[in-house]
Amino acid sequence: MSPCGSKALMAKPIAFIPGNYYVSLSTSGTYCELMCPYCRGRYLVGMEDVNSPERLRKVMEHYYARGARGFLVSGGFTRDGYLIISEAHLNVLREFKAGHDDIVISVHSGLMPKEFLDKMWSIGVDFIDFEVPPSNSYLRNMKNLPKHSVSDYIEFIDYVTRYDRDFIVPHVVLHSKESTISNELGVINELSKFKLRLLVALIEISGGSELSAGNTLNIERITSALRYSRRLFSEVALGCMRPPIFKARYDELVIRENLVDRIVNPRRNLILRYGLPVIYACCSIEKRHFRLFPSKNYSG
Questions:
Q1: From edge to edge, which strands make up the β-sheet containing 70-74?
Q2: Which of 96, 119, 170, 203 has the most beta carbons within 10 angstroms of its beta carbon?
Q3: Is 7 a domain residue?
Q4: Which of 183, 104, 196 has the alpha carbon at shortest distance from 156?
C-alpha cells in the first residue's frame, strides 16, 4: 500500500529517516560567518565537509555508490544570511545531476541573491529548503540579521514560485522566545497564499538549559500552530529541528492526534506502536520521489 494517504481518511503520519540515504553536505566545512546564537556552527559538525569542489564530487560519488539517492547541500551562511557556496560547487552539482537521473538535490539557500537562485534552478536542483522567520525580532536576536525583515523572506518566496511552486519548501519556526503565537500564525497565513505543496514546522532550540529541562515548552501554543497549518496546507511536516524534550514528551501526541502528515526521526518505539510507514529520506521531498528511497511499512 502506498504511504501517501488521504488527509480525509486521517492517514498515519509518514516517518522520514534520512540516515545515509539522504546525506547532508556542508559547502563551508565548519565555517560560518553568521554564527546564530542557537547554533554557532555546531550543527555543521554533523555534516559531510565538502568545502572544495573536488571533495563534493568524491563525497557524492561515495554515498551514491552505497545507496544514497538524496543530497542536502547546506553549510555556513554569509553575514547577509545565505549559503556560502562557490561557482565551482554549482558546476559539480550540475554535472552530477546531469549524470544521474535517480537522485534528489535540495539546498538550504537562505536569502540568496537572485542570480545564485537562478543558477540553482538552471543546474537542476530539485527544491530549496527555506527557513522563514516568525518575526523581525527573531531575525535580529536569533539570526544576527538586524537589517532583514519577514517581508524580505515572503518576497523571496514570491520570486521563487515564478519558477515552480514545488521548487521551494518553507520551514517556519514555532515557539520562539522572539515571537508570539500571533506572529507565527500570521506568517503561516501569508505562506498559505502561495499554495505550496508542503509546510515544514520547526520548533526553536534555544541552546539554553531551561528548554532542555522542559520548563518553558508551551505545547498548546505549538499544537495550535500545527492545527492551523493543517487547515491551510495540503501537507504539513514536523521537521528535524525540535528540542529533545519535545521529542521525548510530545512526538507521541503529534502522531496520535494526526497533527502532521510527515515527521522526521521519531523514536523507533513510536514507529512500531503506531505502525508508521517509514521512508528513508528528507521529509521535504515530493511524493513522486518516494520511489527512489528505501521504505518500510509497519502497519498491521
A1: 48-49, 22-26, 70-74, 104-108, 127-132, 168-174, 199-203, 236-238, 262-264, 14-16, 277-279, 295-297
A2: 170
A3: no
A4: 196
Pairing of strands 277-279, 295-297: antiparallel
Q: What is the CATH number of the domain that holds 40?
A: 3.20.20.70
pLDDT surpasses 70 at 235: yes
Nearest to 128, CA basis, from 282, 300, 20, 296: 282
Taking the whole predicted model, whether its pTM rises above 0.90 is answered as yes
Decide if 276 is inside a domain.
Answer: yes
Checking if the pLDDT of 6 tops 60, the result is no
* Structural domain span for residue 269: 16-297
Q: How far is it, in rounded angstroms, from Cα 68 to Cα 102?
A: 10
- What does the pLDDT average to over 34-60? 90
- Alpha-carbon 41 to chain mean position: 17
Q: Which cell numbers hold the place of 220? A: 498548546
Residue 77 gets which letter from DSSP?
B
Backbone angles phi, psi at 252, to 5 degrees: -65, -40
Alpha helices in 123-208 (DSSP H): 136-142, 150-160, 181-192
> Does residue 78 belong to any structural domain of this protein?
yes
